[in-house]
Design goal:
The protein is an alpha+beta fold. The protein has a domain of 120 residues: 7,8-Dihydro-6-hydroxymethylpterin-pyrophosphokinase HPPK (Alpha-Beta Plaits, 2-Layer Sandwich). The strands form two sheets. Strands 1, 2, 3, 4, 5 and 8 form a six-stranded antiparallel beta sheet that branches. A two-stranded antiparallel sheet has the order 6-7. The longest helix has 14 residues. It is globular.
Amino acid sequence: MTRIDLEPSLKRGVDVAYVAMGSNLGDREAVFSEVVAAIERESALELRGASPIFETDPIGPGRQDPYLNAVLRLETALTPADLLEWLQGMESSLGRDRSFRAERWGPRVVDLDVLFFGDRCIETPGLVVPHPRAHERAFVLIPMAALAPDHAHPVSGVTMQALADALGNRDSVRPWRRPIPGWPTVD
């Protein structure tokens, strides 16, 4: 994976970012372990917490296997664009196909999405923060509420716990009970 030149970013200070993880192809547990290990090797990222892992029903076309989903809390000196670039590089290194042939919402080895970046609202052609569908997806809200229940959505002001409590169908998200090597605990 390509390292990002962090010199300009380091002068900005540190932000807290929340990143959603998902995987439903291949060895899902190994993918989660590799993402955590890569974050721990990256000097511009500091892992500050992780939700429990959940197995979730897939959303998207065709028959798909269940996902593993979780949310990570990172401290970073990266800009939002640099964080996105790093995450997409991580996806590519693990085999994610982002070509035009890849099916939208289709099965994937790994999906890493910036959910929140501090309290910023960002809208560029390649990045929208807060994630535009985070507030309506059980596979994001339930892990997010487990990790940061009092985190307020920067647009609505509603906490993650309140958003998760308002979900109608929570049956699609189930706790993953098997330990994953290297997976951090909730702080």
